[in-house]
């Protein structure tokens, strides 16, 4: 998996616990899927998962891990990657933009990434095989990047891993199939028919598109207009989620919850987010008794490395490095809701 701010890797067991009483084949929606880590975990415990995200890179990851079936695609992926590995390096727009104008990847690896990405478009791969191959390239690039984990900036000196040769691996596919959508959250919520839903929306001003703009470009392969030291896509300025707005987030959350017709609802949020605990609980109360679990959690990567000026010089320290992840659980059946919340407890 790629490095990802906001990943629920450490909370996955709690989240799947809140769905563990549901029978195999139960339809569950992962509405803001990101790396689809939670969707994958739900798929592994037998849920019929639909993963949704409006970002193209996240949709591609979901097609790889949630939509695909290991038994059906594993051998085809191996063959495709073997052919791709024979591609000779060739630098162009991607290498110039992200390895020379910016320094996210060493130019030698940039030329390999670029040539392989161009080759993928000529391989005429069907979905989800194409997405699996794209994810293999994305994860290979992530293993040789020169960042602290987000693509808002790059390291002043090359990270040791940046000079290692890029190597493709077969993604760890899962048996069974699921569904991957690339929709606005409210539209996906209204389109879904099933029993449960998991929501992990953005909670502050930080946009996932901005944090992972290179993955968006690697998937779209559209040579967008870029700006700034980080050479971000210009659409990072314009394609803003209402969930990244303090003024709009409450309305956006209410719209999504109003559109969801499910019995079991689980929401992850952060106690430093734009919405407070009591606001979210109030939005959920019409669905039944709300059970809220507080979990101690490490803050985002910026809090670990301190405060820096535009030159990259450390100029201060953050006030704290831990916060609380809030897990809200509700079910239309009060007894089932209480049981689900208990299963999510540490």
Properties at a glance:
346 residues; alpha/beta; seven-stranded mixed beta sheet; two-stranded antiparallel sheet; 15 helices; 11 strands; 40% helix
Structural topology:
Layout: H1 12-17, E1 27-30, H2 37-44, E2 48-52, H3 56-67, H4 70-85, H5 93-101, H6 107-121, H7 129-142, E3 179-181, H8 185-191, E4 196-199, H9 208-211, H10 213-220, E5 226-227, E6 232-233, H11 235-238, H12 249-259, E7 264-270, H13 277-284, E8 291-298, H14 301-305, E9 307-308, E10 314-316, E11 322-331, H15 334-344
Helix pairs in contact: 3-7, 3-10, 4-7, 5-6, 6-7, 8-12
How many strands in all?
Answer: 11
Helical amount = 25-40%
Helix/strand-derived class?
Answer: alpha/beta
CA-based gyration radius: 20 Å
- H and E order: HEHEHHHHHEHEHHEEHHEHEHEEEH
What is the makeup of the main sheet? 7 strands, mixed
Euclidean distance between termini CA atoms: 24 Å
Strand content: 5-15%
Task: Tell me the overall shape.
Answer: globular
Unreliably modeled segments: none
Count, helices: 15
What does the average pLDDT come to?
Answer: 92
